[in-house]
Amino acid sequence: MVSFETNDRKKIGLGLTGFGIFFTFLGIIFFFEKGLLAIGNILFISGVSLTIGLKSTMQFFMKKCNLKGTVSFGIGFFILVIGWPILGMILESYGFILLFSGFWPTLAVFMQKIPILGWLLQQPFIRSIFDSYRGKRVPV
């Protein structure tokens, strides 16, 4: 049985992940400011590591099916740090989509349970979009 208890380490990890997303968003808003983008990436990765554990994080990123996304994300981060933020973010986004494409159906179900957003997602046109992508994964 899976345990969903929240200890202090997981709370800190979720906070770091949230701040990582926030700093990345700020970096994009401020015309790809490489300092904010780098801080956002570091906070995001450290937050994920604290939330699910270091061993699980390493297993997730080193799976054979996730290796292409991991390499793309890592090279994108390196390119971002050396001074080409737009190209780095493009590579990181590609890697992020490859790494986390398996979570999109779970995210869609979660979003459908949010009160106003859920009603919007239940509309026929939008629902047909979700149904066409259900169960599909980006080829690796």
TrEMBL record:
Keywords: Golgi apparatus, Membrane, Transmembrane, Transmembrane helix. It comes from the Eukaryota. Pfam families: Got1. The keyword Transmembrane helix applies. The chain crosses the membrane at residues 12-32, 38-57, 69-87, 93-111. The keyword Transmembrane helix applies. It is found in: Golgi apparatus membrane. GO terms for biological process: endoplasmic reticulum to Golgi vesicle-mediated transport; retrograde transport, endosome to Golgi. One of its GO terms (cellular component) is Golgi membrane. It is a multi-pass membrane protein. Belongs to the GOT1 family. This is Vesicle transport protein GOT1B. It comes from Acacia crassicarpa.
